[in-house]
Design a protein that fits this description.
This protein has three domains: 110 residues, Orthogonal Bundle (Arc Repressor Mutant, subunit A); 105 residues, Periplasmic binding protein-like II (D-Maltodextrin-Binding Protein, domain 2, 3-Layer(aba) Sandwich); 93 residues, D-Maltodextrin-Binding Protein, domain 2 (3-Layer(aba) Sandwich), CATH 3.40.190. The chain is built from twelve helices and 14 strands. It has a five-stranded mixed sheet with strand order 6-5-7-14-8, sandwiched between helices. A five-stranded mixed sheet has the order 11-10-12-9-13, with helices on one face. A two-stranded antiparallel sheet has the order 1-2. Helix 1 crosses helix 3.
Length: 342
Amino acid sequence: MLVFIICSPEAQTLTIAVCLMVPEGRVNFQQLKIIREAARQDYNLTEVANMLYTSQSGVSRHIRELEEELGIEIFIRRGKRLLGMTEPGKALLVIAERILNEASNVRRLADLFTNDASGVLTIATTHTQARYSLPPVIKAFRELYSDVRLELIQGTPQEIDALLHNGGADIGIASERLSNDPTLAAFPWFRWYHSLLVPKDHPLTQVSPLTLDEIARWPLITYRQGITGRSRIDEAFNRRGLVPDVVLSAQDSDVIKTYVELGLGIGLVAEQSGDNQESDTLTRLETRHLFDANTVWLGLKRGQLQRNYVWRFIELCNAGLSLEEIKQQAMEPEEVAIDYQI
């Protein structure tokens, strides 16, 4: 028998209920962690063992014992390889996610009630958001919570997603990936577009209206694959049947600016990455009519209790959401489709 602790998002009270009963035996937390990690690691047991700091033989033994205990096959197999989950396995994965999340909530509970106005808020985000979008929000947050220390971790959307899952970050902020993960509660922050950076007196400053065909004639410097809306850039050129000459790709806007200033090419960067210093050497051209908008998302691990200052940070970013709405959405066990207005 496993005990499932259910927490109310409003009052954060506890209700204890039996959620899984197995005759003649017991399902343990390590087995549930293995089920969850197997799905996350694309059923690669070597990676599962590495993530859980155990041996591959131990992982295989736990899976075998759990299947024998429940009397079902959890995984689809080809020889010794796992290819996916059976229907009973998928149902078990949902239960495992909830149980492990609630177990984590129990560990966090005492700290939440005794230390609600101080602590550490860890935010995983991209360089562009950390450098250009977050400063005014963080300044406002510090005025409300002077005893909360902030940690900013900069990474790719994939790294941000992983940090949210493994507890390395409280909040993740990125333009891609977070809204597509059903185990995360994602809230929109703002929409943004790309703009084009060219050296002063570049021929493109005389082109009106600016077109993708004209941009594709020049060496291009932009973000690397998977970050800061790069997919929107590729999609726009693909729709036009163009293959731009991307001579350099980088992770952050400041690096792109540096190489545009050196004359290596023209740069497609996030609109919000502008500052006063670039006006001396570069010209920024609007490209809203050429590339689709991007949305910056704030992600939290779904179903996990948080200190009140975490909810408050989300509210500071999106004033259209109340604290009650944020809590309710974040504590939902499954993704609920919401038409956000931003």
